């Protein structure tokens, strides 16, 4: 029960912080210096969000028998993708084709059967 409440609080915190990051106004007709400052602020918020997610992933125990779990690695990969997009906008090189792969977006997945894919070292 306590673990369930804690997990909801952690996931709620991730949602709240992600909403705050994405809520920064990025108007298409905004002046460039203000937009650069907003995007730099988003990058700082992404740093904080990534630290929060990594801490949450480390603090959330893996409970054997749970069917579903929050997919922290997928969330971190999507955050890295958002960071890359912002950084490429702030420091554009020459006109290059954009990578149009989509964010995963679904962070709830069934737990895979417990097995160790790496062979154990023999003493």
Automatic annotation (TrEMBL):
Compositional bias of kind Basic and acidic residues: 96-113
Keyword Signal: yes
InterPro entries: Uncharacterised_RAQPRD
Domain of life: Bacteria
Protein's UniProt name: RAQPRD family integrative conjugative element protein
Stretch forming the signal peptide: 1-30
One Pfam family named in its UniProt record: Plasmid_RAQPRD
Keywords: Signal
NCBIfam families: ICE_RAQPRD (TIGR01690)
Keyword Signal: yes
Lineage, uppermost ranks: Bacteria, Pseudomonadati, Pseudomonadota, Betaproteobacteria, Nitrosomonadales
Natural source organism: Nitrosomonas eutropha (strain DSM 101675 / C91 / Nm57)
Region annotation (Disordered) ranges: 88-123
């Amino acid at each position: 029960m306590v673990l369930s409440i804690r997990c909801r609080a952690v996931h709620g915190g991730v949602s709240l912080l992600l909403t705050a990051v994405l809520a920064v106004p990025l108007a298409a007709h905004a002046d460039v210096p203000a937009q650069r400052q907003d995007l730099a602020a988003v990058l700082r918020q992404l740093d904080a969000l990534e630290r929060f997610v990594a801490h949450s992933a480390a603090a959330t125990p893996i409970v054997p028998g749970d069917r579903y779990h929050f997919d922290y690695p997928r969330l971190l990969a999507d955050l890295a993708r958002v960071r890359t997009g912002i950084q490429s906008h702030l420091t554009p090189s020459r006109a290059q084709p954009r990578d149009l792969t989509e964010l995963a977006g679904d962070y709830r997945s069934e737990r895979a059967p417990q097995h160790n894919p790496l062979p154990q070292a023999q003493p």
